[in-house]
Amino acid sequence: MFERLSVMLMKEFLELRRDRWAMFRLIVPMILQMLVFGYAATFTVHHVTTAVLDLDQSQASRSLISHFAATSRFDIIDMATNQREITSDIDHDRAVIAIVIHAGFSRDLENGKSAPLQVIVDGTNSNTALIALGYIAQIVANFSTEQAASRVFPSRSGPAAAPVVGISLQMRPWFNEGLNERWFFIPGVIGTLTLMQVVSLTAFAIVREREVGTLEQILVSPIRPVEFILGKTVPFFLIGLGDIALVSFVGIAWFHVPFIGDPWVMLVGSALFLLAVVGMGLLMSTFSRTQQQAFALNFFLLNPFFILSGFAFPIAAMPKVLQWFTMINPLRYFLVIIRAVFLKGVGFAVLWPELGALALLALIMLTISVLRFRKSLD
Amino acid sequence: MMAEVNEIAVRVHGLSKSFGSVRAVRDIDLAVAQGEIFGLVGPDGAGKTTIMRMLAAVLRPDAGEILVDGVDVVAEAERAKLHLSYMPQRFGLYEDLTIAENIFFYGALFGVPRGERIARSQELLEAAGLLPFRRRLAGQLSGGMKQKLGLICALIHTPRVLLLDEPTTGVDPVSRRDFWAILYNLREGGVTIVLSTAYMDEAERCSRLALLHGGEIRHCDTPQHLKAAMPGALLAIASAHPRDVREAVSGKPGVLGALLMGDRVHVRVDDAERRIPELRAAIADQGIADAVITPAEPGIEDVFVALLGEEKPHEP
């Protein structure tokens, strides 16, 4: 058993070493993608092109506009003079957002009435629109608080004015006090890249031997399925560990994502995740007769695993059926683990359900792979 | 069990295999004695590879028994694999590994102890003339060298029965001769060889042949007996215009078949004495003056065409 397994591993290692591009393929795309996604994966919206139509032309309206101009989130590209210009700006993609301050805005404010403000949003990119709307709401809220304060306390003279009960929200987010999105995304990118890399490598492993004809030769030998599968699994497992270490290093050293957890928890989580992922790749491999089929299957499955992982879209918001599907997605569990280890520093006591789920998935997928890999050509 | 002379090394009984609605192998019986070089001959699609794969325990038969070196291949596939060796049409060499590494790898898969593996690979490499190239990558070898390396890998665990599926297809004549020299040596050592081939000259080198057609064995005998069993007699007609000669004799009474063989035509007739004058006349009628008719010794190709050609196409 050990002899055959070790010679399988020796063979895989030699093939990898002789393959001049292997190291390049295993390392460079991972680091490049890590850098690109690290910068690109963000929901923060900056420099939203904005058109403004001020029909009130009052001190209050100008003050509100200056609030928008003061932040880098909005770029005012047009001070329009009529409604048609606004419509044209939106239609021609010159502006994503238009703010219309109607006549009577300042009068309503003076009278303590609620003053309507019209905001037109280009909904074709609903994500940007929603986020921008959030910023607008914040700016407007700040503005109205200021306005209210200046009305209640017009001057310091005079008797004490009626006390105003105001609610002020003091936000103090835990684990990521700056709400730095990069901290949230980079651990996710590490998990996602590893999933894609290791599943593809593994899915092609057995199919390639079948196509080249070496599988037939191995089948006539007395090797046991377990030995063959292990011989194929261990190298990709090790490559996966190396990849996780590599991209984690990039995340920590380059993007300054804090790593406050226990490296051992990270190691155990990564190992279980990789076993499940390698099992997934092997299973796909047993369903493919040719590399083309493996490629198609890979293409068909990887995107759903990525989208339905909680990387960007919250699982709790998905339809029930898709939520069930995420249960067999190893990435889903690993994202919880890796984010928790990086940012929260929690350990086994908290993460055991995810670790257990990964272990179970790994066990099931590897077992099915071994069972499906019958030593037969039909 | 005591080893008797002519012990049966491969015994097949009632072997059948279908792929969907295609009955690739139909109820085959075979008995190959130890030390034989047994040839499976037949056109493409006759079932040669399917039979080989079943003998090698990589394909499960639908029905039938296979005993190789006394081991039941169907029931004990894994144990049988230690007694036999199978070389597919395209041997699966790892092209990124050297000759020596490939041999080492396959030796280990078959559980050959390390010391023995090194000694035996040395011996086999020497016999095949590959010793100077042992550090060369398998991907950089010529077709003939690859085939020899495949054979060495197949022989590293000293199998009792060697199964070769079209081993010399696409190999140059010199390498084929070397290859056969190795096979004869193996037979000397008591190894039983079952091979399939589409080359008729190679078929002639076998001790016995099974002529396969449509998944069935039509005839099984020594090449000599098969030739003797060929119905009718063979005439060789030499001429500068062999195509015209074939045209002239085809369909004449008593002519069972006419086969173009280079600058001659092999004509099979029911009765040589009676037909030679008739054919001579028929050829002369066509204005061919240089034709010379002589009785010919049938080659295995003639036998093959005679025995299989006159049968009706097989009903599925």
Could you name the key traits of this structure?
heterodimer; A: 378 residues; alpha/beta; abc type-2 transporter like fold; 2 domains; four-stranded mixed β-sheet; 14 helices; B: 316 residues; Rossmann fold; Alpha-Beta Plaits; six-stranded mixed β-sheet; four-stranded antiparallel β-sheet; 11 helices; 14 strands; elongated; disordered C terminus
Task: Report a brief summary of the structure.
Chain A is α/β, with parallel strands linked by helices and 378 residues long. Chain A has helices at residues 2-18, 22-40, 59-70, 83-91, 105-110, 126-152, 181-212, 214-219, 225-253, 263-286, 291-307, 320-326, 330-344, 348-372, and strands spanning 48-54, 74-80, 97-101, 117-121. A four-stranded mixed β-sheet of chain A has the order 2-1-3-4, sandwiched between helices.
Explain this structure to me?
Chain A is built from 14 helices and 4 strands. With 378 residues, chain A is α/β, with parallel strands linked by helices. Chain A has 2 domains: 2-41 and 178-372, no CATH class; 48-152, abc type-2 transporter like fold. In chain A, helix 3 (59-70) links the parallel strand 1 (48-54) and strand 2 (74-80). The longest helix of chain A is centred in the middle third of the chain and has 32 residues, at 181-212. Chain B has 316 residues and is of the alpha/beta class. Helices cover 35% and strands 28% of the residues of chain B.
